[in-house]
Design a protein that fits this description.
- By secondary structure, this protein is an alpha/beta fold.
- It has 7 helices and 7 strands, in the order ααββαβαβαβαββα.
- Strands 4-3-5-6-7 form a 5-stranded parallel β-sheet, sandwiched between helices.
- The chain starts with 12 loop residues before the first helix and ends with a helix.
Length: 188
Amino acid sequence: PSRTFHGNNRLLTFQITSHYESVNQGKKELPEYFNFASDVLDEWAQLEKDGRKPANPAFWWVNDKGEEVKWSFEEFGSLSKKTANVLSEACGLQRGDRIVAILPRVPEWWLLNVACMRAGIVFFPGTSQLTAKDIFYRLQASKAKCIVTNDTLAPAVESVLSGSQFLKSKLIVGQGSRDGWLNFKELL
């Protein structure tokens, strides 16, 4: 049995489970290649654009001060495409390259995550509680070509950069600038 949820026709757990069971039983074809950004996000954005789906938030973020960021599927898709362009053009990353993101869960974290899916870049998230030693280990073990962090965490990252042989670019998420860093918001 399916029903609407909050007035919208959304798939419920039963429908999702049923879909995957039909794929497992060979009743539905599994795509050879799947990319969440283009196969899901862009499809929902197109439905919004065509007026076949109401513009509900695809992303809704609220911080502890009550500030909100809300994006429709169309906005989220567009921003993730711009972010993918920043990664490939300004940072010089290609499919299969690795990026380490040491950020709190700010909207840019999700943009980077989806942009990496879109561009085929391997996304390594790191908690903002990492020490300089932890950051160095992750940079070396992942062979990351790019690191993304914020103003607060940049000093810890900078303290270990001299030993990182693979890193080619550094992105900072913040309002100001920092020597040797690309500013994500300006590039976006």
